[in-house]
Write a structure and sequence with these properties.
Length: 747
């Protein structure tokens, strides 16, 4: 059996095939060899042996036409039509007698001039008023149920470059006998045609083995039944995958091979088997130098999104594959990886791979459905604009709506997201997952901030933030809220190896309510919350010229540390204040929080009206496990004190207890505290502080033997005045009580 696609005006057909066309009525029938039988009558449905009328078979002929539908609005291909081919045969069923008869296209039909209308001849027993139903192709039907049932295989075969559709292009027509004649019959297709255009864009010949169409649900029928009026009555035998066996056909470089697949429709009457959100996958299996390889053409694309992805307007057929419609999809096939047009890809495990700005915005659209996914910025494919090894996704200040909730793993792979303009809250609103190895650069907010926010996340809970950097953050907060240069509120989460290097945070507050602001984190909450090995740089400025009627806590690193842990961190931030907020060089307020091996070398300036401390503004500890241990401050304090002497301290303004082995270098403010206990706090010079290294490291080891960092003398002449000691990875030496020595990297 040889089958070819017949197309009028072949030249024009290929000229207009630009990418993907979707036609309402282009299912093109192949030429079929006529199968002969001994009798024109098939069988009598009533008794299987025929009846008296069967003995009086008469020659009849009729004109058969194929119903042509109007093309879709997006269609550029107007000249493809259904046509008959030489050798076509149909079964004509006389409903009155319950018998079927063979009719074949006349021998004079010219295949070189195919037409949608043709004459068919055969023998039948009919009388005036008899109701007829005809089906294509011819069927060996003993009963009407046999005639009315159409089945599709799960795997189809195409051995050549032209379509082989004879066995699966189903059509039906109905009519009544009048004037003892069989009327002209118009056949309507029962199948939808899918055409896969595969262009080889790789650098070698590929052999095409299979094309697989797969869904996330059982939406492809295996069987269709019609009633006596030729109307689809049911679809059954649902499955989720169809395969076209292309028989290993060779596809040369830059050539195109079309695969044709008839399927039963996914809709009839009011029934819709697919949803607009049904996801489709298309995969082509190839032989690449005799090595089997699967190439993904579509991956988890919703039916409603096919137009955006491949230009296929499924909305025109209610997001279904409809009978009599032609769905043409063109793809480039390359064994080498190609970045998808949508800029991201979802793998078999449901994880998301992002390759560019388009991919980031694409992820944003589907993030709610993939909250637990691993999202990876694929560094290998991301641009390196400066040629300096830094991979950058430039957002171009296009507005970014925050990811509402994320609980998976975001792997930044050291990539920088640049020129990020956030609508509100942060890059992510609520994070309960892991975010790591990511830099945000030139971060701004499109409007003044009135609710909790942070450049990376507004809230991070039971999460991990690791090796993340913010450069050049700009934010203005106008209402009481929780804001941090990196994270707004960290609840029971771990922040490790993170930094805010530069930026300006303006706190122009009005209205009632409490608020907490930090260069890194606004509020650090709960005993399991940990910030470790993180810092705020010298190019960060926090300005607080006005205060709300409620209390506010401002810190170079953390605004309010509420029972959290802060270890091995520092701040070099500039704090410019003129308000009644509590301001601390490292932490605004520390409430039963643990602070270990931290230092401050920034500045505080302006006019103060409340507790202001070089290290902590207010330290309230009534828990034996909560202490401030082995820390120092060289904060330069130059303020006008309108709060009173008991509100200003070189290390702590208001202190209860719990401080051990802590020091300050004070020039303008020399009292260790404004009020409260001075135990554990000593005034030193920069030189004397260097000599305190051993005592501080012993205190670190006593407090947390597993901490992993220790102080060493800063040998950098440019910074050692205000940072006499810096932190390093601790390497314990046998027989030595403290972790004085080590070759770890400085932080």
């Amino acid at each position: 059996m040889v089958v070819e696609i017949k197309i009028f005006n072949r030249t024009n057909f290929y000229i207009v095939m630009k990418k993907v066309y979707h036609l309402l009525s282009v299912a093109l029938l192949g030429a079929m060899a006529l199968t002969s039988c001994e009798e024109d009558k098939i069988v009598n449905e009533n008794n299987g042996e025929g009846n008296e009328t069967d003995k009086n078979l008469t020659d009849y002929s009729f004109i058969a036409s194929i119903k042509q539908s109007a093309p879709l609005g997006r269609s550029n291909l107007q000249n493809g039509v259904y046509t008959w081919n030489k050798g076509d045969a149909v079964t004509l069923w006389n409903r009155s007698f319950g018998a079927g008869y063979d009719f074949s296209i006349t021998p004079g039909y010219n295949d070189n001039q195919p037409d949608k209308s043709a004459e068919f001849t055969g023998k039948a027993a009919v009388e005036n008023g008899h109701k007829l139903i005809a089906v294509f192709p011819r069927k060996e039907a003993k009963t009407f149920n046999d005639l009315a049932t159409f089945s599709m295989p799960e795997t189809f075969t195409q051995t050549g470059k032209t379509a082989e559709l004879a066995a699966t292009t189903y059509m039906v027509a109905t009519g009544d006998v009048t004037d003892n004649k069989i009327p002209a019959l118009t056949f309507s297709p029962l199948t939808a045609l899918i055409q896969f255009g595969l262009k080889n864009t790789s650098d070698r010949e590929l052999k095409i083995r299979y094309i697989t169409l797969e869904s996330d649900d059982d939406v492809f029928p295996a069987e269709l039944k019609i009633d006596e009026d030729g109307v689809v009555q049911s679809l059954s035998g649902m499955r989720n995958k169809l395969t076209l066996d292309m028989s290993g056909q060779a596809l040369a470089q830059n050539e195109t091979l079309n695969g044709y697949l008839n399927i039963l429709p996914t809709t009839y009457g009011d029934t819709r088997l697919m949803k607009s959100t049904t996801e489709l996958n298309i995969t082509v299996s190839v032989l690449n130098n005799e090595v089997e390889q699967d190439i993904i053409l579509l991956k988890k694309v919703k039916v409603k999104d096919l137009e955006d992805n491949i230009g296929l307007d499924m909305d025109a057929t209610a997001n279904q594959f409809a009978a009599g419609k032609h769905y043409k999809m063109d793809f480039e096939v390359d064994y080498r990886f190609r970045i998808p047009d949508e800029g991201y890809m979802i793998d078999d495990d449901g994880n998301i791979h992002i390759y560019n700005k388009t991919g980031l915005f694409g992820w944003n659209k589907i993030a709610d459905e993939y909250r637990k996914a691993t999202v990876t910025l694929e560094k290998e494919y991301i641009d390196e604009p400066a040629g300096d090894g830094i991979k950058v996704i430039d957002m171009g200040n296009e507005l970014w709506e925050p990811i509402s909730a994320f609980g998976g793993v975001f792997e930044g792979n050291g990539v920088t997201i640049r020129n990020l303009q956030i609508a509100n809250k942060g890059f992510i609103a609520t994070n309960t997952g892991t975010i790591r190895n990511l830099t945000l650069e030139n971060v701004s907010f499109s409007a003044d901030i009135t609710e909790g926010a942070g450049a990376l996340a507004a809230e991070s809970s039971t999460s991990v933030i690791q090796n993340c950097t913010v450069k050049g953050v700009t934010a203005t907060v106008i209402k009481p809220a929780v804001f941090g240069g990196l994270i707004g509120r960290n609840s029971e989460g771990r922040i490790e190896g993170c930094q805010v290097i530069s930026g300006t945070i303006n706190l122009n507050l009005s209205g009632a309510g409490n608020s907490n602001y930090g260069g890194l984190v606004g509020e650090h909450f709960n005993g399991t919350a940990l910030i470790i090995n993180s810092y705020v740089g010298a190019d960060v400025t926090i300005k607080h010229p006005s205060n709300s009627s409620g209390a506010s806590c401002v810190g170079g690193l953390v605004g309010w540390n509420n029972s959290g842990k802060v270890k091995g961190c520092y701040s070099l931030a500039k704090l410019e204040v003129s308000c009644s907020g509590q301001v601390g060089g490292l932490i605004g307020a520390n409430s039963n929080g643990t602070v270990l091996a931290c230092y401050v070398a920034g500045s505080i300036s302006g006019t103060i009206y409340n507790n202001t401390g070089g290290f902590i503004a207010q330290n309230t500890i009534n828990n034996a496990d909560a202490t401030v241990t082995a820390c120092y401050s060289t904060t330069q304090i130059n303020v006008t004190n309108n709060a009173g002497s008991n509100k200003l301290g070189a290390f702590v303004a208001s202190n209860s207890t719990g401080i051990n082995q802590c020091y300050f270098v004070g020039e303008t403010v020399t009292n260790p505290v404004g009020s409260g206990s001075v135990n554990g706090i000593s005034k030193v010079t920069a030189t004397q502080l260097k000599d305190k290294k051993r005592q501080m490291n012993l205190a670190i080891e006593a407090k947390d033997p597993e901490f992993g960092f220790s102080f060493k003398v800063n040998e950098d002449a440019g910074s050692n005045l205000y940072c006499p000691l810096i932190l390093q990875g601790a390497v314990k030496e046998p027989g030595f009580g403290g972790s004085d020595f080590g070759d770890g990297g400085d932080i």
